[in-house]
Structure formats: structure tokens, C-alpha cells
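Trying the structure run again after the queue cleared.
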Amino acid sequence: MTDNSATLPPFEFPKIYSFPPLYTEQPNTTIQSQQLDSWTSIILQFCQYYKITTLTLDLTPKHSQYEQITISELPNLFNNKSINRSVSPEFQKKIINHLIHLKKAIFINPKKPQFGIFILWKSLVEWGNELYNYIDESGQKGTVMTIYELTKNDEGVTSIPDGLINLDEAFLIRIVKDYLIKQGKAQLLLDENNEIGGVKIV
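Done. C-alpha cells:
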């Protein structure tokens, strides 16, 4: 697999991202609904472009599948320095809740929301089916595999689909727990320390 992130040009934000009123919560419910939809679209497009699945609550990227990207150099979406505008913490929370309501995001840890969110530019069902189909088509059903083996190719081996390469390991576990296990298609195996030691797709 070729990692095209090395030549990936900066994300081209839509024009509305430079529209100052976007950053201030509007009192009119109709306009605010449009605002929330605009933010949802921007966030999903940005994260899909950079293959980001994990964000802090202030939308600072935490993980990209592109290894060559310096994650700390990516912009914080709620703070547009080019027009000197930022979203208030209260409005940030409303945008995050809107994403979750639309099933476009889930908390990394529902009991500790401060840990951030997984952003779903693909649904858990789509992610789960992609993982299941890869294991099925490669003849590895019933084989215990480590999280590493499910997200990394050994040198010279390119069997894992592009969509799964370098996937956030915590996100992969969430896909398995919240979709594949519930569908009866996977099992998580614990090691002697009661930590996840492997995954079996069945």
C-alpha cells in the first residue's frame, strides 16, 4: 500500500468556514439548526480527508491513519485563526451533542466524556463489515489475531485493506464490541492481565 499522505495537500475548507457568524451560536432555532448542520458537514469532511477517527472535545485531532501526518500540526476546527474567530465552550458542547444525536460521533468512554469522541464519517456498521469481509475473504475466520495484526502490515506484505491500515486501536476495539460481537460475528479474548489479547472473527 502506498501512503499518499506524504503528498496530501491541505484540506480545502468550504467558504462558510470563513463566515464569522458560523462561530457564534445563533438564537433563532432555524438558523441554529443550519449552523449545526454546517458544522457537522465540515467536521466529517475534514476528518474523512485526513482519516481522523479520534478527537478531543474541542475537536483537536488525536489520531490519523496517515502515519506521515504530524497530528499536532493539523488545525483545531473550533478555532479559525485566519479570521480570528472561535467557538465558545457552550456552543462546542452543543455541536458535539448534535454529532452524537445524528450518530456521527460517539464518546470514547461514555462514563468519562472528557476523553473525547470517535468521529463516524463511516458508521460502525460500515467499519465492522469492512473488517469482517477482509477476514472472511482472506480465509482467517476463526483465527485469533492481535489488534496489531488487524491494523498493521508487516514489511513487504500489503494484505490489509487501505481502510483498516493504522486504524486507532481503541476505535477498532469499539467496532468489534459495539457491532461485530452484537452480531455474533466476533469474540474478544483476554490475557492473564484481563486485558484484550486478541480478536477472533467467526
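The beta strands are 52-55, 61-64, 79-80, 85-86, 105-107, 117-119, 144-145, 186-190, 196-201. Worth checking whether this holds up in the mutant runs.
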